[in-house]
Specification:
By secondary structure, this protein is of the alpha+beta class. Helix content is 45%, strand content 11%.
């Protein structure tokens, strides 16, 4: 008897660099988003500050556009990583974000499931995009993810040439 494999997940055509191309990167990204969100929730209750993880296309587009227009990277985007869901449909709603991220010099990566991304970001609904900002407790983990994503992106560029 042969076992049937589940059908492949939908993946939009522009989803490069893809986290599943690098071994164990996807769980690390989900874990990082989850830990940052939990830390922010605890700090927000204590100090009244809310920063570290941005969710939603509208807020992230606004933040990246301000960065591009001013031609100066704000402090909250230093070392940030933009995480996009590759199963977003129609992908036109997020197709402008990789271009804005490159113009703003922000690292971005695609993960396979926006449902799992939403759960990691503390939402009950699927989330198409999350911006993880660098802050002290998770700066080293975020920089490691950023380095791996840049290597992944460099490998994709070499394959195209």
């Amino acid at each position: 008897m042969t076992t049937q494999q589940p059908p492949p997940r939908y993946r939009c055509v522009i989803s490069t660099p893809f986290s599943e191309d690098q071994e164990k990167l996807t769980p690390k990204i989900y874990s990082l988003v989850r830990k940052c969100h939990e830390h922010i929730q605890n700090e927000w209750k204590k100090k009244g500050k809310k920063r570290g993880v941005m969710k939603g296309i509208k807020d992230i587009t606004k933040s990246l556009r301000i960065c591009v227009e001013k031609k100066k990277k704000p402090q909250h985007l230093e070392g940030a990583v933009l995480v996009l869901g590759a199963d977003t449909s129609p992908y036109d709603v997020v197709s402008h974000l990789p271009v804005l991220a490159e113009q703003a010099d922000v690292t971005y990566v695609w993960v396979p499931s926006r449902k799992e991304l939403g759960i990691a970001a503390g939402s009950r609904r699927p989330t198409s995009v999350v911006l993880v900002q660098s802050f002290e407790p998770y700066a080293s983990s975020l920089s490691k993810v950023e380095r791996v994503v840049k290597k992944l992106l460099a490998g994709d560029e070499e394959e195209q040439q």
